[in-house]
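Go through this pair.

…
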Amino acid sequence: MRDFPVATTPAPGTMSVDWEERVNWERLRSYRLARVREQLDAHNLGALLLFETSNIRYTTSTTIGYWAFNKGERWALVTREGQPKIWDFGSAAKAHRLQLPSLYDATNSLAGNTGLQGAIGPNSGLHERAATEIAAALREAGVEGEPLGVDMAETGVFMALQAEGLNVTDGQQAMMMAREIKNQDEIMLLTQACAMVDGVYQDIFEYLKPGVRESDVVALAHARLFEMGSEFVEAINSIAGERCSPHPHVFSDRLIRPGDQAYFDIIHVYNGYRTCYYRTFAVGRASQAHRDAFKQSREWMDAAIDQVQVGKTTADIARVWPEAHEFGFEDEMDAFGLQFGHGVGVGLHERPIVSRLNSLDDPVEIKEGMVFALETYAPAKDGRSAARIEEEIVVTSDGPKIITLFPCEELMVANEY
């Protein structure tokens, strides 16, 4: 068992202060936009047209909350020069001009609408209007005839872009490459987001007892995260007892009972940056099956962390994990997401993705500045319980730095009898 992790990346707090260097927002914005423009050149693109919410946040530093998450009602256009353009939902465009006047004015913060995912019918001409405005912006930037990378959009929007004569191609890989390496500000935000979850797990550990529902833990976690400054809570996995195996990936109203094993995943957003952070407990008492499952999950985790070195690949990590049939699944597709790794940033699943499904045949080099989560899962021999562990890791030239610090070296028993 490795030594417990200690804080090595700063999480100075959620306030902005004059007496300490914290997140430098201008440096963050400049870094992200420069990364995107590097990928325009690398992928031979004239521009990127972005509908996916995380990509828009990364390139424009604008948000209108989780309500707008991937509804397709806001989009951004990034070309080689100048500030990106954002088409936003109604009055949000005017709000950006008021909130970020150094970045947005009436020329690059515009109202837009593509029909609310088909709720406004195609006869309205909204798809064609959007395509016409995008084409005009490309002409203005001098890149109309060059490939236009698009991350995701409704089918009708793609058809309208093609009807406008635009050379539409895939833009999502360019954005995934841009977001792959984090700068010091992104790492600070990711660390601060984890520090908030550290505190929530302390509350959960003290709260767990018979009679508490899985959904009650979800409510507790939401409340505490918002109290600490979370932007929104994307998901709380709350799983206990016989629901642990196989992992259902959704909480219920099940009452937690004496002797249950229970695991949780906390996914929230702080200033645009997410967490994905599992911990496992026993409630009241732990059986040998519980302890064995936890020990196995921890050993697979430690073996994976040992492979997190600059110059190694995601295949090196995936190889230390068991094959699907070794822990009760038919194949790697069936077991996907259990022995698993994924980049974490403005999106929940960024590069690199680590799994025996994809990494052995298509490995990705581990690079300094990557931040990713590693997840392991071990079903218990009792046929109902399981252990789930997740650590978030910053890749440095000195080796892996763990930023998920709530104790996870051995199985913790909440309210032990």
Observations:
- The domain at 44-170 is CATH 3.40.350.10 (Creatine Amidinohydrolase; Chain A, domain 1).
- The chain has two domains: 44-170, 184-414.
- The first helix runs from residue 25 to 42.
- The CA atoms of residues 283 and 414 lie 5 Å apart.
